[in-house]
Amino acid sequence: MNSCILMAEVVEEPQLRYTPGDPQVAVAEMFVQFPGQREEDPPYTIKVVGRGNVAQEVHQRCHRGDRIVIEGRLSIVTFERRQEGFKEKRAELTAQKIHYLGSNDGFQTATTSAMPVSTPSTTSRNTTNYVGSESYRSTAATATVPPVSTHTANMANISSVDDDEDEPIPTAKKQSYQSQSIAGNQPDVDDIPF
């Protein structure tokens, strides 16, 4: 199954065009970028293509600087560069659904600090979303976990298990197997002649 979910920032306004023919199909193309895997890596850029109703929606709602989450299929597209005389391969994401997160407020790219924002705590649990190896804190996904109770009043009805019982522990028996050789004059019943 080819399924890709990518959180990225729109770096170029979407371009809308229509396919030739009787049933014209809308096609929207835009470039998005997302952080590299390491802090020193530049941000990655990928072309996103939407068709039909998705293309119309992308053209109307996506603008440069918007943060989006794209669900779609990843493919490799080969095209020829006529000026240089060679073929180039490029990754392309065909969008099936797009979630809009708003403008670029607090979206970390590889050019900014890539410090993880979630820290372990005993009273709260932070949900961290990963794109590459960068981490982003989802403010809507932060949940407060109640502290663990150390109250032992309800422990009176629980019986303890004695681990030092006097049952003998079974031991494994070693068996030695002797190889049985087939005598030269006896036919092997498992031998299948070919």
Automatic annotation (TrEMBL):
Any one GO molecular-function label of the UniProt entry: single-stranded DNA binding
- Cross-referenced SUPFAM superfamilies: Nucleic acid-binding proteins
Signal peptide start and end residues:
none
Q: Where is this region: Disordered?
A: 141-194
| Record keywords | DNA-binding
Stretches of Low complexity bias are at 141-153
An example of a Pfam family matching this protein is SSB
Q: Write down the InterPro entries for this protein, in alphabetical order.
A: NA-bd_OB-fold, Primosome_PriB/ssb
Name the CDD domains for this protein. Answer: SSB_OBF (cd04496)
Q: Where is the composition biased (Polar residues)?
A: 173-184
Judging by the UniProt lineage, the source's domain of life is Bacteria
Q: Would you tell me the protein name for this molecule?
A: Single-stranded DNA-binding protein
